[in-house]
Each structure stands twice: as C-alpha cells, then as structure tokens.
C-alpha cells in the first residue's frame, strides 16, 4: 500500500467512530496526534487502507474529577496534562511524565491515548499511570469493558485491544493530601529522546519520614512496564533514611529485567534503574520535608 | 484524492491531494509556501514547525486530512519583508541565523512561545520551549539572545504602538 493510496475518515462523534471501527473486511487504524502513526507510516510499518482520524473528537478530550477517580479522555494531549491544575495537585507524577515526552511540538500533538496505544515499553506516561492505579475503559460498538492498565499490555507494541475497540477513558486514583510522586527519566539527551530507563514513584507519607504505602514502576527494563514489588514492600520497613533508600536501590538492580539493545546494555540499564530510583526517592523525601 | 479546506496565513485555501500526504508537503508543493523545511521527516528537528490553532506542531507528522478546517500559520504568516515580526527583526539584529535552514521553524516556535509570555524569559525557559528545534550552525547562543531581545521589544513597544 502506497501512502498516496491510504484513505482517511474523520468521524464527527464517538458513536460514528465506533461504527467505523466495527466494519469488518478492511484494514483500518486509528490516528490521533499522529506522532507515532505518521512516523511508522513513513517507515512502511503501518500502512492501513484507511486512517480513522480522531484528532479532533472533542468529546474525548477532558480531565475531570468525578467521585473517586480522575477521568481523562484519551485525546487529552501531553500539553493539556502539563497545564492541568487538577493533575498538578492530585497526580503530579503524571504531569512530570508528560513534561518529559519529546519537546513542545510532540507535547502539543501527542495524546495520552496514543502513548498507551503505541504500547512502547519506553512510553513515558505509562509508569506514571501504573503507580496511579490506572484503569482503561475499552469500548466497541456493542461492548464496554474496564481493566487495570497492567492487564492491557502483552508485550512491546502488543495489547489486548480488539480490532473493533478503542480506548475511551483513562481512570486514575487521585493522590491523597499526604501523597506525592515523581517521574525520573534517563534519555540520551534532554529533549526529544526515547527513555533508556524511566521510573515513576508514588508515595503516601506518614509521620516521621515514614511511608505508609508506595508504588514504583519502571519502563524500558522489560517487555512491558513493570511494578517493582520487592522494592515497594521495602518502602514501609521504617524511616526512609539514606540507608533504607540505598538498600531499596540495590534490590531494584536485581528486580528489573532489562535487555541490551541499540540504546543501552542490560547492565547499564540495571545500574541506571537503581540510580534513578535512589535519586527519585531522595528528591521525594526532600520535597515532602520542604512542603 | 480528497478536497481539503483550511485557513493558511489568514487565507482560505482548498487543495486536492491524497489525505495521508503530509501537511508539510501540501504547504510546500501545493501552496508554494517553502519557508517550512523538511529535514528529518520524523518529528525530531523542528525545521517543519508550523502553528495549528496557535500551537506549534511538526507539519511533517500532520496528515493533510487531519488539517481539514484548521487554522495554520507558517513562517510566511508570522511576517514577510517589509512587514517583519519583531522576532524576525531580532533574529537579524542579533545575527541568529547562519545557513538559515532551521530558522523558519525556530521563528514559528518562538512566536508560539512569546505569545504566551509577558516577561523576558530566561535562557533555561527558552531552551525548554525550543527544545524541539535543532540548529546545526549557530550553537544557539544568538538564537536565545534574539528571543530575549524580541521579548523585551514586545514588552516595551506593545503591538498597537508599533
Ligand atoms: C520526535 C519524537 C519524540 C518522541 N518522544 C517521546 C518521549 O519522549 N516519550 C514518549 O513516551 N513518547 C515519545 N514519542 C512518541 C509519541 O509522541 C507518544 O507516544 C504520543 O503520546 C503518541 O500519541 P499520538 O496521539 O501522537 O498517537 P498516534 O500516533 O496518533 O497513535 C499511536 C497509536 O495509538 C493508537 N491510538 C491512538 N488513540 C487511540 C485510542 N483512543 N484508542 C486506541 N488506540 C489509540 C493508534 O491507532 C496508534 O496505533 C515521540 C515521538 C516523536 C516523533
Ligand atoms: S522535518 Fe519535521 S521535525 Fe524534522
Ligand atoms: S542556522 Fe543552519 S541549522 Fe540553524
């Protein structure tokens, strides 16, 4: 299929979009901001017969707090998240992650739905969504299901999304007043770079430098994002002092399962995962104490 | 082929082209607006930067069909001699361009950035705002200076007075 032969449909509502997705016997694919889709189309990797263009489906672009969750529409851009006061207050780790995506142009174009849809193990918003306990709503013309983000990814670029489904909502749990988070990324340069390793940490703090509960998720160190459960269980062992933080970082070195590729060797990734976690925890404690 | 309508630099335009053609190619080939440049073609260098509804994007990754009904501004729309924008004047005054290949994209990015600020930005803020624009010649020092000069001119002589 040549690029010049690819058609495009622009549905004007979600129901029209779901209708289009339900049509069998043709190769179609959603395109939102296009920052992954257009690149892969040019590389010859993604050549659908029809692009279903959802870029301007306004009804899927929102950030709202309702009942116990923050609801995020999949067409919310990284810029929208960076500027959202609600997320700044109640999901700081996601704001920090969005800020690390590409540079201004990519943040203006790229969407959270697209970041999830691409399912790269290096996707920057993904570890943040893991530690915020994200749930994804997947909708087809005839069905709607909601599942935890952990169950969505099956490998690099692979998900449980069916041909006729799309992501219609991302639900996250707002941080409590004694909660805070951080996102740390190592890339080859400051802007516009794919993560070599990234980590999202979210802590709920108690008195006296003690952590009541914490979540840690790493990207780029396994086929999908992983939670570092052993490290997490150590967070509540006692005061988060230098000794405990260093011990947690040592366990992280063992807990991640990276491969070597063109961007870095496995050993370097282990070293950096450990260092990013250690640095992130120090920074979080400092922020907590300065609050 | 699809017929696509949009507003480019204040004018309503219609082009007939494959919907998956990039906006950059449409601007350059169908509309003869050649300020926006293709360099990497994959979002990394910013030389193709244009504004869509006042936000800076890489036109090499926007497909023509997605630009339907959008308001697009290229470097030509920011200003053309003799009616240059204060940003363009500052680039000339500070000598912030060498080969010039990156310049239209940087002007467009700087325009979006300066439209949102009302103080003189720090070098660090400019580096973040222009992080998606690469320049292989200048070493950036003069570009940053030019953006600061433009900001200070904008503040001291607001648009209406100019
Ligand atoms: C130069 C450059 C730098 C980048 N830097 C980073 C970076 O630092 N960190 C990072 O994480 N990413 C980065 N990216 C990747 C990309 O920008 C992000 O993944 C972005 O969030 C993708 O969003 P999009 O809207 O552009 O997706 P698109 O390209 O439009 O779509 C991506 C995929 O998601 C699917 N999709 C989109 N919306 C939905 C939906 N609602 N339901 C189901 N499937 C959907 C599409 O079908 C497609 O398969 C970079 C890309 C470029 C070109
Ligand atoms: S040509 Fe578009 S970003 Fe390089
Ligand atoms: S002036 Fe030559 S690339 Fe910037």
From TrEMBL, chain A:
Keywords, in A-Z order: FAD, Flavoprotein, Oxidoreductase
SUPFAM superfamilies, per the entry: CO dehydrogenase flavoprotein C-terminal domain-like, FAD-binding/transporter-associated domain-like
GO molecular function: FAD binding; oxidoreductase activity
Domain FAD-binding PCMH-type: 1-177
Keyword Thylakoid found: no
InterPro entries: CO_DH_flav_C, CO_DH_flav_C_dom_sf, Diverse_Substr_Oxidored, FAD-bd_PCMH, FAD-bd_PCMH-like_sf, FAD-bd_PCMH_sub1, FAD-bd_PCMH_sub2, Mopterin_DH_FAD-bd
Membrane-spanning segments: none
Keyword Oxidoreductase appears in the UniProt entry: yes
PANTHER family listed in its UniProt record: XANTHINE DEHYDROGENASE SUBUNIT C-RELATED
Protein's name in the database: Carbon-monoxide dehydrogenase medium subunit
Organism: Cytobacillus firmus (Bacillus firmus)
From TrEMBL, chain B:
Superkingdom of the source species: Bacteria
Any matching Pfam family: Fer2_2
Residues spanning the membrane: none
UniProt GO molecular function: 2 iron, 2 sulfur cluster binding; metal ion binding; oxidoreductase activity
2Fe-2S ferredoxin-type domain ranges (all copies): 2-78
Keywords from the named record: 2Fe-2S, Iron, Iron-sulfur, Metal-binding, Oxidoreductase
InterPro entries xrefs: 2Fe-2S-bd (IPR002888), 2Fe-2S-bd_dom_sf (IPR036884), 2Fe-2S_ferredoxin-like_sf (IPR036010), 2Fe-2S_ferredoxin-type (IPR001041), 2Fe2S_fd_BS (IPR006058), Beta-grasp_dom_sf (IPR012675), Diverse_Oxidoreductases (IPR051452)
Keyword field contains Transmembrane: no
Protein name: Purine hydroxylase delta subunit apoprotein
